[in-house]
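Notebook p. 47: complex prediction with S-adenosylmethionine.
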Amino acid sequence: MHIPVLLKEVINFLNLKEGDIVVDATINGAGHSKEICGQIGEKGTLIGIDLDQKSLDEADKELKHSKCKVILQKNNFRNLDKVLEKVSIKKANAILFDLGFSSNQIDKSGRGFSFQKDEPLLMTFKENPAEEDLTAREIVNNWEENNIADIIYAYGEEKFSRQIAKKIVEIRKEKWIETTMDLVKIIEKATPNWYKHKKIHFATKTFQALRITVNDEIGALKEGLNKSLNVLEKDGRLAVISFHSIEDRIIKQFFRNKKEENIGTIITKKIIVPNRDEILKNPRSRSAKLRIFQKN
Ligand SMILES: C[S@@+](CC[C@H](N)C(=O)[O-])C[C@H]1O[C@@H](n2cnc3c(N)ncnc32)[C@H](O)[C@@H]1O
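Predicted complex, structure tokens below:
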């Protein structure tokens, strides 16, 4: 079961009223949405977006007996404006992004997100990627060494990015890199021994970087945030929970820029993080950061 992160805090800061229209841009199993629905009541409307059909099915089941009106849409949140247009909603009182993926999604996709299973090296959010869709396999087998190193550094913050890219290019001359385990073995060879005994697995950062690149997660986040502010009502609030520093920096900078443009106010002068109790109950929450913005 996915436990919603910072639930009390999100609900407190979203300032919800009965009858509000709320967009949950990453609904997953409706952990936050269930509570949101309770707050906005039967006159309220919840629009839940997710790019994963299984998550939407789960949300549908979870929200079956809730009071508010529920509209579920399979889409990327970068198309938030089009989703709302499609369901004839012009403005929202609150929008929530709870970024990332549940461990269930990562483990069960069969598309190579996890370095602990031997699977085809795809890493696409799309279940059936088309011929022309970018995959992790395409990046490691065809991109130039420098470009591979750059993304591993930028989106993985991996200090051995150059060594890993070099080894990838060396090995692929002999053999096409096909599966997650092919790549794990390359990273293992490219990094020093002490790196294998750290708390986080030596392949974590490279895998994160490839996933972010394949799915243009940074582009989607920037687009999604911009579109949210366009559809937010005056005094409406945008809440964003992120789990790694690359995303958090983007959100922080986005809020600062929008404040300077006089579009709204940063509500969370200090970021909100889970307390010890929450981290003990739900270790996945330990890296969560919540930021809130209010539109003028
Ligand atoms: C951490 S989960 C959200 C959990 C949810 N708040 C809850 O408590 O049940 C993130 C969800 O966002 C979805 N997601 C990630 N990137 C997305 C994107 N660009 N567009 C739409 N959904 C996305 C994932 O499929 C996943 O279901």
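Notes: Residues 245-260 form the longest helix (16 residues). Residues 85 and 91 are 10 Å apart (CA to CA).
Next step: compare against the earlier run before touching the bench.
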